[in-house]
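ERR on first pass: missing label on line 2. Operator R.T. fixed the label and resubmitted. Corrected input:
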Amino acid sequence: MPETRVLIIDDEEEFANTLAERMRNRGLIADTVSSGEEAIVSVARALYDVAVLDLAMPGMDGIETLKRLLSIRPELQVILLTGHGTVGKSVEAVKGGAFEFLEKPVKFDDLLDKIGEAKSKKSALTEEKIDDMVKEILRRYGF
Amino acid sequence: MSSNGDVTAAERHLHEGLAFFGAITASVTHELNNVLGTVDQITGLLEDLAYALSQGEEITSERLNAIVERTNKQTERGAALIKQLNLFAHSADNVVAEFSLNDTLQNLVALMNRLAQMQRTELTLTLPDKDITIKADRFMILQTVFHLIKRMISIASRDTLVEVIVSEQGSDISVSIRSPYEGTVSESFDRDHVCSLAEMLSGQVDEVIDDKCAKVEFRFPAICEK
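pass 2 clean. output:
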């Protein structure tokens, strides 16, 4: 998965940093933040393909973070990481626009597979958006 | 259940006690799950490095030692959580027992720190210089203080301290919890239940909330054999 940009959002910093280190070893570009508030700033500043988001975080929780991230970048694909007690909430989150959810402790290869699928979906959405923009320009200028 | 199908007071207290036990257990096991998840990723990182080594890549001993150190930290964190949970689990061993209030409340505050962090607050505990030994229902005292701390956490302003202060007042013990306050009072607090717990310990709960600070005090006798 060349040039896949991933943002890991988790208040468990050691977990997030290790995950990011492993992703970089596999050729992904991975950054970490430890709160929803920081994630919003990062997503507004840089283009990411996929966000890996912990559902249970101090302050702004995963659901609220998800909504805010998608309002900034609707094409961003968000994979939720959940604990045992929050699976019901995750189902709601997927209905609200998350790409998928995985239960912690997550298997790294499963997560990589999901990131690959999410990246493909994001690329398809971006292409669709570009096609629409081109069609709109052609229509507006009568080509 | 009573003959007309209503839940009796005793059943309600039993249920509330189990719910309290469950809330603490759920919080600690969630954190243990995080520890395991982190150790799992660190182990995976070692596998990645072993593979890289087999491919001729150079891996320094410093890098490996740093990973060992990271694993040790998580192991220590997990062991501390299990010790805290084990100590808590034994709080229901006897209805009335002689115990150290300092140790008991220190453990409760440690167990509740994650709940506090989730609300973006931090718990601090101030104990008297000398250890207070009391004779009472330890589980019921824990349950009462838990509800009061939870109450203060839920209404405290974000990024502030929730202070738990323990003192001896003659033959009574005072556990007071205070926090900066500028929001609305949570409605989920079951005042009647908490007051009835305090009464069963021959104690009382008083709450004062003004526009800047919220404070609740639980006062009870050091010896309560019921």
